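Suppose a colleague, Dr. K., hands you the sequence of a protein chain of 825 amino acids and asks what its three-dimensional shape might be. Before reaching for any lab equipment, you can write down a predicted structure in token form. Begin with the sequence itself:
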Amino acid sequence: MAQALEDFSVENAFFLDETEVLKELDSLDALIVVKRIDVSVVYMVSESFRRHKAVYFDVCDDFLAPGYKARPGPWQLALFGSIAPYLSGIITTGPAMVERIQEYLDGYSTKSVPIHILKDIAETRETVRSVTEYFRNSSAAKVKQAPPKPGKAPPRPLPPAPEEQSQPPQPEARTSAAAKLKSFFFPTGKQKEKQPSKPAVAVKAAPAETVAASGPVRKKVLWFGNYGSNHGTFGIVSLLNAVPALRAVQKDVPLELVVVSNNRTVFDSVIGQLDVPSSYLEWSVEAMAEAMGQADVALLTNGDDRFSMVKSSNRALQALASGVPVVATSNGAMAELSDFVVLDDFEAGLRRYLGDAGAENTRQDLLKYQAVAAEYSAPVVAAKWRDILVADVRAKRDLKPKSGATLFILREQSLGILSPEVLDRILAADDTAEFIVDSQVFQKAPALLECFIRHRIIPSVVATSEMDKGVASRMAKVKLVVLPEEKSKLVKDFTKEGRREGVAVTTLKDYCAALGPFPERLNETGKTKWVFVTHQNTKGWILDAICREIGSRQPDSWHVAYNPPKLPDAENYFYSHYSLYLKHTRKNAKQIGGARNFIWFTHPREDSAEEIAELVEAFNKATKVIFACSQHLDLWLERGLKPEKGCVVLGGADPELFRPHTRSGKTVGISSSYYERKNPDLLLELVKTQADWRFILIGRNWEEYSRFEELSNAPNFQYVVADYSEYPSWYDRFDVLLSASTLEGGPIPLLEAMMANVVPVASRTGFAPDLIRHGENGYLFDIDAKASDVAGLIEAAFGLKTDVRETVIDYSWDNFATKILDLAE
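The predicted structure, expressed as tokens, is then:
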């Protein structure tokens, strides 16, 4: 079956030791336990169930029966009852075994388990050889076993003797604990091409030792199988029921009983004492091939006890597939072959196939078998196995936890983020929150203990040395694990178990960031995590907003300082303009020198050579200079900035505030405060020359423009002074955003408009070249472009069909703030 499943893209491996199974379990999709029941199986099955693996119990015969292998009492059934609730299914060969297994489930388990019938494969000489070669060629790579104990020989991966079966012993039938199916076993649409089997080669068996081999040419009556056991009447001894028939037929048809088995002593003590001509062959692949090739009929007797009555029909199928007619003892499995197998009437059956009409009777019955032979072929049975596996593994994946508690692991390292205010917010936001707290935490921060008291939540408080114990048990009903940011065995174990269980894992920092925005606050000590420095005149405007966007997206203390003479103490300073950094390096060098300093560089001024030299020296002492666009980083690298001191972080916009809209007209929007560098004359010329377009300018201080009256009097122009909260509704009226500045760092309104699905037409300055792909999601022009050239681009923009928003959707304030904050890590 393993070989056949590989033709359906199922990779498998075999294990001879449960410790090897557990080592590999995370890489498996399913575990198949074949003809084995002991305490180790209980552990393997329960652990597989816990890790959401499909688990199957393959029961080819009644090895669960009390007394099997001389084991006293129903202990096998007790173990079976303990694993049944955790099985995805039980695989067996026919209706009789289904009834027997159901009887055991009813008596020893409270859970119903799906029982699948997968027919025995009809083996031929060719398939037996192919399978034998398959295992011998691949056993080193596929069979996994624990190293032998000192002084003991290693177990053989391919035992040489049969175990109640006719085919060569294979790991899944005798010594293997499991079959392994890797994660890529799902069919990919193109199955591996099936290679033809090598043609069978006739190999002469060792000379048969006979009881009576002289006289006329004798018809060969073949019996093969395991010699028997003390837990049933199957095996060689079952031939006693057929002795009268053999004697009767022998009077008319010279015959020889050929027995292929694995115990000469039992043969000699039973068959050797009878007056039926017989011979014995020790079981081997070669002996079976030789005997099957010479047989005229297979006489496949079986016992009459409870164990024997549910045995499978594999021997009969092997004979039929080899072209040998069958006379056999009936049982549940054999009943489905009754149309072409003679059951129970051994004398009639032997005469049917050995008499004068034997050849024709054999031909007719084998034709009947051929009509249904495909049902017993390896590809058909393997396809059914594959379907069972696919369905159950997918179901297991879907059952992985989608709801449950949020488990917080708090250690001393968590205190850098977890203030009482943050803990209050966590407890208010997540009523499923559970906590495992290192005992050191409350000693360092007793105020956190008061939070738990106030919210009436009892955390698990654990000694530091006990924190990493019982990780797996804590994950059973968890949807999310929140870990401290540290490299430790504890974090590694929880992360590994989370992946195994399908439980999300995050850090306390990232979890808290998602709870934002966090209000501006100072630490009790007076030293703040982040101080954002900006000019007084930016209050309520874009640079102030940027500072607040960053600060509010992290749970630590933060404060916006409007350029006071002396800055509050902080671990990190963020300067919204480089002039602020220069001022405080001159006046407060000692104070800020021990902190991390981040400079937000929007756009340069016309600085003198001396000022540039001073800035280069100061910038190279900063932690990082954050440029709003690539152009300005390149400029300062040319001026002498060290490469490791500079980086580019493009601005952000709120995708929830600036929602997309459908463009449908010819409205040109401008979003900007007035500065001469905003190129107001170009705007005026466009307004005057494009009378059929509508222009809407949102901003402030445009009254300072010398030609503002001329501009504002144009019938196709509207000037709006609005609160920032109203900007989205104005952007909804834009089809094109014009940004005509001769110098920019951003501008942020360009990104806001693109987020609202407005097509940008912008000068090549600031981050416009970083965001706009000319002709794809907008258009670019040189800063000295003529109005007529810009008008042509705007006309093209009116017809652009691109979803502009999708091209900038990742430039959110969340991502912007994360990039800035990560620079401090």
